[in-house]
């Protein structure tokens, strides 16, 4: 059974590269809508990953997609990405905390 969110949404995309953008119009004061939007986002990301897609797109990772980076790339790849970032940004001034999630300890 197909379920739809309780708030307005739309999707636009790039047909050639499979990139799509989902706009969710939420009531900023509604915790229920925020929780529903988070659940919808997780479903979209897991669907994309299950089809060998990515959780990121033309606008990069962003704060909202970092939680899926380990699932998509694995910790070894993320450790390499962190090392490369340290080489080019040793003071961590370029998008600190916005590109790579912290290491899992």
Give the overall pLDDT as a whole number.
87
**What profile does the largest beta sheet have?**
2 strands, antiparallel
Number of helices: 4
- Major sheet strand order: 1-2
- Name the quaternary structure: single chain
Structural shape: globular
The helicity comes to 40-55%
Instruction: Give, in order, the helices and strands.
Output: EEHHHH
How far apart the termini lie comes to: 40 Å
Features:
two-stranded antiparallel ribbon; Vanillyl-alcohol Oxidase, Chain A, domain 4; globular; single chain; 2 domains; 105 residues; alpha+beta; 4 helices; 41% helix
Which secondary structure elements does this structure contain, and how are they paired or packed?
Elements: E1 9-14, E2 19-24, H1 31-50, H2 62-65, H3 69-73, H4 75-88
Antiparallel strand pairs: 1-2
Description:
The protein is of the alpha+beta class and 105 residues long. The protein has two domains: 1-53, no CATH class; 60-100, Orthogonal Bundle (Vanillyl-alcohol Oxidase, Chain A, domain 4). Helix content is 41%, strand content 11%. It contains four helices and two strands, in the order ββαααα. The protein has helices at residues 31-50, 62-65, 69-73, 75-88; strands at 9-14, 19-24. It has a two-stranded antiparallel sheet with strand order 1-2. Strand 1 (9-14) and strand 2 (19-24) form a beta hairpin. The mean pLDDT is 87.
């Amino acid at each position: 059974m197909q379920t739809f969110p309780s708030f307005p949404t739309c999707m636009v995309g790039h047909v050639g590269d499979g990139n799509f953008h989902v706009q969710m119009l939420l009531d900023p004061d509604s915790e229920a809508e925020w929780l529903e939007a988070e659940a919808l986002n997780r479903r979209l990301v897991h669907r994309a990953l299950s089809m060998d897609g990515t959780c990121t797109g033309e606008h990069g990772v962003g704060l909202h997609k970092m939680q899926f980076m380990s699932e998509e790339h694995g910790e070894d790849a993320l450790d390499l990405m962190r090392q490369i970032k340290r080489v080019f940004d040793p003071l961590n001034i370029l998008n600190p905390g916005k590109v790579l999630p912290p290491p899992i300890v």
